[in-house]
Amino acid sequence: MGLLERRGKEKDSRKKLILKSARTLFFEKGFNNVTVDEIAKFSELGKGSIYLCFNSKEEIYAQILLNDIENFNQQVSILFNKKKIAADLLVEFSYIYVDFFLNDPELFRILMTFMLQPAKMNLSEKINSQILTANARSIDAIGKILQLGVASKEFPSNMNLKQNQNAIWGLLNGIISLYLYFGQQIKRKEKISSTIKLALEIFIKGLKQE
Asked: How far apart are CA 20 and CA 74, in angstroms?
């Protein structure tokens, strides 16, 4: 192994260690309450080593967000191998989406901040574009399910796919927001799942009546 290759692998290992440490701290304390100094200490690295890999705390969390969105998209891709009607796929997609954020509620807050107030994240144009592209793939998966419903005549052929996929994505985020920051944590998943199931049943019933 050459010197450059070895240094590249060492840097990749440091980046993975930093991301793992930062994820633990963000989950325990929240994004705003964690400093780069704390990430360095938790990683057992010097602060300078953090800045050799990342430009800021925001960039560290953005990379965590990007990695998690990509993992979510991989989970969702498996849905399309299942022989299920579109309505059932929408419900299953929704449950995957809910579990994604219930495993790390801070992730949901950061994603919403990124979507609604991107300037606050202070990210490079490259990372900003990567997150937008990855998140668009998540939303487009809803449209793909709707298209399957149209193809199978489960949904009307004249439905506006883009408008309806965005409406469903907004519906999911609204329900998650409603219960993620209110009510008892022990009943959170049950409340979110049952509300989403009911909301989708109403939404799908409306689609079929178009």
From this structure: 20
Q: Does domain 1-54 have CATH number 1.10.10.60?
A: yes
Nearest to 66 by CA among 144, 140, 142, 129: 129
Residue type, 13: S
| Count of other CB atoms within 10 angstroms of residue 172 | 21
Global pTM value: 0.82
Q: How far is CA 105 from the centre of its chain?
A: 10
* Chain centroid, CA 142 distance in Å: 14
pLDDT 10s digits, 4-46: 666 667 788 899 999 999 988 988 888 888 999 999 999 999 9
CATH annotation of 57-208: 1.10.357.10
In angstroms, the CA 202 to CA 206 distance is: 6
Token output for 67: 């990695």
